[in-house]
Amino acid sequence: QETGNAEVLFMQLDLASLRSVRAFASTFLRQEPHLHLLINNAGVSAGGTTEDGFSLTFQVNHLGHFLLTQLLLERLQSCAPSRVVIVASRAHCAGRLRPDTLGRPPSGLLSTFQDYCDSKLANVLHARELATRLQGTQVTCYAVHPGFVNTELFRHTPLWLKPLFLPLAWLFFLDAAEGAQTSLHCAMQEDIESFSGRYFADCRLQEPWPPARDDRLAQALWEASERLVGLVGPEGSPSP
Asked: Which Gene Ontology MF annotations are present (predicted)?
């Protein structure tokens, strides 16, 4: 109603539930024959555990998007040229990933912040490995730092921190429209296909931190993510 565009459709999707992700993908593929652009934008920074037993932040920010992308990948390929944009963050610079403990909440006083940083490192590595696996398919993908944006991402900020943090957000952070610009750039800009798998900020190509350029870590993250979301069994064989 707000857009005035009758072609905008709402479909229920809860990234904190792998069951919901699968249901959404099934409904979408049944109803929509075309898919040229997938923007994985949702994100949270909060404590808690999902119904699937994973950290809420890590599942919503990475595992849910990973499963969704995999379930829609065949449609993206059949509609190529197409693109996947994964909204990451400069916070990936503080990420620490161990594939054998993936999806478990970190320990420590700043566990929620560390979990968020870990998920953003996973976003950048996801785009990198996805690009490697999609070479020659005309499906390209990009990781994006949108800037520091004043959105509801910060609604879970601890009560004691809000009086300090929220005024800074209102004064210095971008609004949602400004924060969308780099995602839109990677979604629509011509002649960036050769940069598939790379990291963008301020509508420009930038180099992420060294761990986000680690191809072995990207592959290990991919394989662990496949197991955790049930795309392959414990031995690496495809799940039914």
From this structure: oxidoreductase activity
